[in-house]
Amino acid sequence: MGQGILLSGSTEVDFMIHGVFSYELFGQTVWITTTHVCVLIVMLIIIGFCIAANRAIKHATEVPGAFQNVVELIVEMLDGMISGVMGKQAVRFRNYIGTIFIFILISNISGLLGLRPPTADYGVTFALGIITFTLIHFNKFKYQKVSGVLKGLCEPWPIWAPINIISDLAVPVSLSLRLFANILSGTAIMALIYALLSKVAIIWPAALHVYFDLFSGAIQTYVFCMLTMTYITDACNTGD
Questions:
Q1: With contact defined as beta carbons under 8 Å apart, do 99 and 200 qualify?
Q2: Average pLDDT by consecutive 10-residue portion of the chain (240 residues)?
Q3: For the chain, which residues make up each domain, given as ranges?
Q4: Is the peptide bond prior to 64 cis by the omega test (within 30 degrees of 0)?
Q5: Are 90 and 79 in contact (CB under 8 A)?
Q6: Which of 75, 78, 83 is nearest to 233 (CA)?
């Protein structure tokens, strides 16, 4: 925990990613970093919640208890958000959108638990951007066919094709950088506060955690998922 997994507890300014331990694989040294550990913790939290939610729904009662209410509220809110943006395409993509929404949100607010948010590592956010990028173009070729894709690249005039190609290739970069930069900035500020003001950083940093981890984290989660849904819906639009 002293290797940068936790934000607090250090007297030096430190918000970098550190190696926790290494092992040899095919003659190469592979490092398990603080990001891997934090991602694992986030995944265990989500898996634990999903198991508990599954049991609650299987034993659902006509008068739901507190936990069943929470589970149903989360599902209804996610379904409402996805359906409001994607319309008839919502049924096909709600599992993916719901999954990345919950993962990104828990990752962003993990700073409230003292963890270094996994989304403050560009390797995590870029991977999410690549997955979304792949899904966008898979559906674009599926619904618009090659002719429709080529036609879209040449709009409004064929001379714009290189610019449209660059615009398409920039999607995963813009998605990932927006999320990464916003979460990293909050992580860096909190690390500076704990390191430089450690003697007086008592109780009041909680208000900053609420803003950087909870408020900003929730907004960035919503923005990432909203853009993802918009891009995918546009890709599925055949123009008919």
A1: no
A2: 48 63 81 87 94 87 83 91 89 92 93 85 93 92 85 81 88 93 84 72 72 85 94 78
A3: 19-236
A4: no
A5: yes
A6: 83
Q: Where are the alpha helices (DSSP H) in 110-160?
A: 122-153
The answer to whether 97 and 136 have CB atoms below 8 angstroms apart is no
Whole-angstrom distance, CA of residue 199 vs CA of residue 191: 14
Contact (Cβ atoms closer than 8 angstroms) between residue 221 and residue 101: yes
On the 0-12 / 13-18 / 19+ scale of CB atoms within 10 A, 111 is: buried
Are the CB atoms for 164 and 153 separated by under 8 Å? yes
Q: Which CA distances in Å does 230 have to 8, 36, 38, 151, 171?
A: 38, 30, 29, 20, 12
**3-state secondary structure at position 23:** strand
Helix (H, G, I), strand (E, B) or coil at 24: strand
